[in-house]
Amino acid sequence: MTLPGAEDLVEAVPAAPLETPCTTHTTLRALARQAFARAAGAPLSEGNHVELLKDAKQNYPAWLEAICSAKQYVDFENYIVCDDEVGRRFADALIAAAARGVKVRLAYDWLGCVGRASRRFWRRLREGGVEVRCYNPPRWDSPVAWLSRNHRKTLSVDGEVGFVAGLCVGNSWMGNPAKKREPWRDTGVELRGPAVQQIEDAFAMIWASLGSAIPARTSSSRIDAAIAGGTALRVIASMPATAGLLRVNELVASLAVRRLWLTDAYFVGSTAYVQALIAAAKDGVDVRLLVPGGTDIPILRGLSRAGYRPLLRAGVRVFEWNGTMIHAKSSVADTRWARVGSTNLNVASWFGNCELDVLVEDEAFAGLMEAAYLDDLTHATELVLGRHGRASLRPSDAAATNPAHQDGGGQVATGAARIGHAVGAALSATRVLEPEDASLTLSGAAGLTVFAVLFALFPRALAYPVAAVLAWVAAGLLHKGWALHRIHARQLAEQRRDPPEPVMRDGDE
C-alpha cells in the first residue's frame, strides 16, 4: 500500500551523494589535520619554506649569518650556551649586532649552563648591549622548581627567518680533530614564512615570564614574509604539564602505515608510547629507533639496553650510533610527516620542560629526512635479541662501536630513569612487569638496599639533610601560602570598598 503523496515526498528528498575514493581521501585528510591540530594545540601554517640543516657544520654558519644580517631584532634561546670557542663566537656576533642598533635578546637555562658558562661570560654580553635573561634559577621559595627547564633551541631574526634545532651552543657539536673526537650528530631546520611569527610568539611568552614583555612588533617584515614557499607545518611550543608532543607522537604511531623512523638522544618512552610503537610494529609498520651507543661502563650498558627488549621482541629495530654522540630529536613517518626540534622521547621533555618542535607535513621534506636517516644507519649498529633474550650488538658489527667516546652522563640519566619506571611499576602495580624488567627491578632493589644500610649505620648523617630539605619545602609553602592569603585579603577589601553593580535579570523590578 502506497501512502498518498509518497511519490512527491521521495522526489523532494535529495539523494545522498555517492562517496568516491577521492572524496573519502579528502575527508580523511581533513580529519587527520583536525586530529593533529587538537593533539598538538597548534594550527597548520601554510606557505613556508623549510630547509633541512645537518649537524653544526650547517646549522652554526646559518645561525651566525642570520645574526650578522639582522637589522631590527634577534630572539635567541638555548638550553646550553658554553663559554668556549663556539660560545664566544656567538657572543661576538650578538654583541656586534647590538652595536649596530639591533635589539638582541638571549634566554638561557640556568641548569643547562651550570658549569658551562661563567658570570663573566654573561656580564660581557650584557655590557655589550645584549639583553640576557636566565630561565628558572634556584629560588628558596620553590625548592623543586628546578625540575622544569627551558630546553628549547630556537633563533628568529627580523620576523624573516627562524631556526629550530636540537643543537646547543658549544664545542661538542663541532668535535675535536686533535683528540680524534667526532662532532655530535644533530639536526635542525631553517624556516621562512608565517611559521616564523609562531616561533617569535613562543619566545615572547617565555621572555615575558622572565621579566617585562616584548613590545608589540612594529616591523612590517612580519607581513612581508607571509608567503615564502609551499610547505605546511606546525610549530609545537610545549610548556610544562601540557604533553602536546606526546599526544602527537602517539597519534603518528597510530596513523603510520608503512614506516616510522625515530632518532632520540635519551629515549625512555612512557608505557603508553612504548605500547603504541609495539602495536605499530606488530601491525606491519617498519618501526626503527636510532639511539646513542652504549657507554663504556658495563652496568650502564646493560641498563640502557634492557629498556629496548620489549621493543625488539615486538619487531621494532633498534640501532646504536657508532660515533661520539647522536643528539638529534627527530622522526619521519610514511614520507608524509617529519618532526625536528628539542623534545626527547621521555617524560622530562613531555611533561616537565619548555620545548619547541616543528611537525612538517610535506612529502619532499619527509623524503629528505628519510634519506638522512638511512645515511645515519650506515654509521650505526643494530641491536638484536640473543639466545637468553638479552639485547646485544650484531656480532659482525661489534667492532664498529667506539664506546669510549659515548655520552656517559646521558646514559646514567637514561639508566636511572628506566630503573625508576620499573621500580615504580613494581611498587604501585600500575602495569604488568615483563621478564625484561628483571635487571631494572633488581638494580632498583640493590640501590634501595644500599640506602637502607646507610640509614641504619649512619642515621643522623642522613637524617639531617632530609630534615633540612623538608624544612626548606615547608618554608617555601609557607611563603607562597602567606602571599596568596595577602592577595585574597586585598581582593576582598577592594570588593567591600567598590562593590560590583547588581545584575538585572528578566522579571526583576
Number of H- or I-type helical stretches: 17
Shape: globular
Task: Summarize the biggest pleated sheet.
Answer: 16 strands, mixed
Helix content: 40-55%
Biggest sheet: strand arrangement: 4-3-2-5-6-7-1-8-14-13-12-9-10-11-15-16
What does this structure look like?
- This protein has 509 residues and is α+β, with helices and mostly antiparallel strands.
- 45% of the residues lie in helices and 18% in strands.
- The chain is built from 17 helices and 16 strands.
- The chain has helices spanning 6-12, 21-40, 55-68, 85-99, 110-113, 119-127, 195-209, 221-224, 244-255, 271-282, 298-306, 309-314, 347-352, 363-377, 408-428, 438-457, 459-497, and strands spanning 45-54, 73-78, 103-109, 131-135, 153-157, 161-165, 187-192, 231-238, 259-263, 286-291, 317-321, 330-333, 337-341, 355-361, 380-385, 391-393.
- Strands 4-3-2-5-6-7-1-8-14-13-12-9-10-11-15-16 form a 16-stranded mixed sheet, sandwiched between helices.
- Strand 9, helix 10 and strand 10 (286-291) form a beta-alpha-beta unit.
- The longest helix is centred in the C-terminal third of the chain and has 39 residues, at 459-497.
- It is globular and about 65 Å long.
- The model is unreliable at 1-16, 395-409 and 422-433 (pLDDT under 50).
